[in-house]
Amino acid sequence: MEYFVVGLVALGVSGLTLFSGFGLGTVLMPAFALFFPVPVAVAATAVVHLANNLFKAALVGRKADWQVVARFALPGAAAAMIGAMLLNVFASLPPVFSYQFGGKTHTIDLVGLVIGVLIVGFAFLDLLPRFERLAFDRQYLPVGGLLSGFFGGLSGIQGALRSAFLIKAGLKKEAFIGTSTISSVIVDLARLVVYGLSFYTASFARIPPGMGSLILTATLAAFLGSFFGTRLLKKVTLRTVQIIVGVMLIAVGAGLATGLF
């Protein structure tokens, strides 16, 4: 079941990332979190996200504005490492609350609560019309890198903030896509270093059997989605998709925050 759900999500959403306001990591991480502990889901999402961005970088990376990349992605990489280390700290803390519901005991841990709230918050950025044109001046690029990188390291969610800051950088369409992709690759590499040194090393026993094959499935599905996305999804009403995905993210985020998932 997990192969079908995660693969389908990766296939569909990776096609939308080329022209939508939400990213692969924003939707794929909750899909992983339905079947695995949240820290495992965040780290697995980072692997798929990086692999897919490397694939896209080979296609569009040559159009990147490297001056913008330096101002945005380098602070983002540093902040992503801090966020990733904080995730490891949260994951080691005991549950903050437990309760009975439906004849079962549900526990709320800090990492699930924080990431659940973040998912709901970023979902609202896509659902509320007043946030559709959220953007910031070019002078705030380093600040945008810090914020998007930090939340990327902590929760795997960074695309909404990255787009909001880069959209006003005075870039042409091709340069915007290339710069966004290269910046995302740099942040992914930084947070994966921390996940590898801290989470995977310290908690290797928590990694479920078969996780590698599931990550490979999601990665290949994301490749297909990126390659065929513009051909298959040009006629999709993007606002409708954003609403559907946003509502689903709110439901999953609420489930993580309350311990139901």
Describe what you observe in this structure.
This protein has helices at residues 2-16, 24-33, 38-60, 66-91, 110-127, 141-155, 159-166, 173-202, 211-232, 238-258; strands at residues 97-101, 104-108. It is mainly α and 261 residues long. Helix 2 (24-33) packs antiparallel against helix 3, helix 3 (38-60) packs antiparallel against helix 8 (173-202) and helix 4 (66-91) runs parallel beside helix 8. It is 72% helix and 4% strand. The chain has one domain (2-258). A two-stranded antiparallel ribbon has the order 1-2.
Residue stretches low in confidence (pLDDT < 50, at least 5 long) are: none
Percent helix range: over 70%
Count, helices: 10
**Number of extended strands:** 2
Domains counted in the coordinates: how many? 1
Oligomer: single chain
In short:
The chain is mainly α. It has helices at 2-16, 24-33, 38-60, 66-91, 110-127, 141-155, 159-166, 173-202, 211-232, 238-258, and strands at residues 97-101, 104-108. It has a two-stranded antiparallel sheet with strand order 1-2.
SSE arrangement:
Elements: H1 2-16, H2 24-33, H3 38-60, H4 66-91, E1 97-101, E2 104-108, H5 110-127, H6 141-155, H7 159-166, H8 173-202, H9 211-232, H10 238-258
Antiparallel strand pairs: 1-2
Helix pairs in contact: 1-2, 1-9, 2-3, 2-10, 3-8, 3-9, 4-6, 4-8, 5-10, 6-7, 7-8
